[in-house]
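User: Need the bound-state model for protoporphyrin IX containing FE:
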Amino acid sequence: MSAHCNLYKDMRRAWCRGINFANMTEDIRRIFLSVTSLPESYSILSLFCLIATFALVVSFKLYRALATPLRGAQGPWFARFSRLWLLREVYHGTFMRTNVKLHEKYGPIVRIAPNEYSIDDPAAVQIIYGSKGRFTKSTWYDASGFPGKPNGFNDHNIERHAAGRRKVSSAYSMTNLVQLEPFINDCTSILRARLDEFASTAALVDIPRWTQCYAFDVIGEMTLGERFGFLDAGKDIQGIIQTLDSTLFYASRVGIYSFLHPILFWLNMMLNMEGMGFLINFIQDIVTTRMGKPPPDGKDENAPADFITKFQRIREENPEKIDKEDIMASAVANISAGSDTTSISLTSVIFHLCKFPEALARLRNELEGAIRRGEIADSITFKQAQKLPYLQAVIKEGLRIHPATGLILGRVVPKGGATIAGCLFPEGTTVGINAWVAGRNKDVYGDDVEAFRPERWLEDAEVVKRREAYFMTFGSGPRTCLGKNISLLEMSKVIPVLVLEYDFEPEHPDRPCETENVWFVKQKHFRCRVRRRSVKS
Ligand code: HEM
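Assistant: Bound-state model below.
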């Protein structure tokens, strides 16, 4: 026993001093001596077990790599045998760029792990994500929630997910959006006041941070009728942002080895208890108080109505349809799925308009023309914004060139297998499309995929239709983003204000966008000086 302890201590010490090469030989010698100090038969048996296990694992991996009908598929060499290649890429936060390069090198099918393939083929969208395919979400999603307790985002069960989604989907429909506009107007006024302060001092503004504060407050007010107060504080409140960040970091990495999730989840929870606890309590208190009262009457269809009100109305019509737990789950989903994603997309538009001044000039021209004709006023409505084709093209292009999610949307091939990109994938294989890869497919989008060119959404109708069909930023099919319209609403309303009223001057105009991929691809170190401009009318 004590020999084991010593051995462990020696190994730990050796590991800690790993970078001290002078000590390494000595460490190895001491560890060897510790091993050899075990009873001889015991150490021979241990050694044999170790070698046998190693040989078994290697043979299994070799067999699996060679026996698969997909052995002809290409990709990084190591990914054929181990998920460690994928883990390393995801860990470094650069997966989406590597993923694009690999498709440029190997074509429409790229192996990214022993049983997992990234696909780049417009025809695959319907096969993988269409409702007829019955492809279920991959195990990567398991790490995005409580172990063994599926949620609306990670549920593998197609029927249960569809039933859950049906309960709440009417609240997210396009016709219901008008009731959310006043909440956006509120937050935009505060954002405007903050930007005016920055403009008066010529301070450098951390754009991703402020779009995040804005998006958090908007989704808070839309969902709960109350802002978190990020725009007032200008910084994280009670560690909420930090908590969501580390949850994403955790889920994107642990999802690769999702069998570890039931163990690691609790550790992660303990480390992030404060922010998560605050967020859940904040939401729970509001939901409980609100559910104790009847919802405001819904006679005026255009009156402001946050999500809790919308859910209460669904419950009034049919109490069986939705309960408090469903409402809590939807509120948490709104806030965790709808804040960073919208902030990333807003930042993408601002960043690219700074980089591509001709697009900015054309957008301003369209907006100023609309003001002159009296078609839009101070708080532009969603309806008015939808009639501005260049604005809509700018938003779409911002979402194409920098999709908020940067990993493949993995799905498991169902019984009977499936032919994708001309290749037969056996049942149980994980396949998926990464929105970054789809948005950079040159056959669909043209050779200038790295350019921010909103005009590509205003070209020949047939060409645009193909682009729309391979636009994967919000996913596709029955698991497509539930909050897509909310983000489009938010962006359509705030971008005109930012573009018309402010000039953004990047601190480093020539630098490319720095990012970190934690499933959400967050921009980093993008600071601008903001100046007030007078709107031409
Ligand atoms: C620009 C902003 C957004 C982007 C780019 C985005 C992206 C996505 C993507 C790619 C998916 C599909 C994931 C998959 O197939 O694995 C998804 C799902 C989802 N999104 Fe969004 N999202 C955005 C905003 C929002 C907002 C504002 C909300 C809520 C208010 C939201 C709620 C959800 C939910 C609940 C799902 C799961 C849907 C399901 O599985 O049925 N998202 N989103």
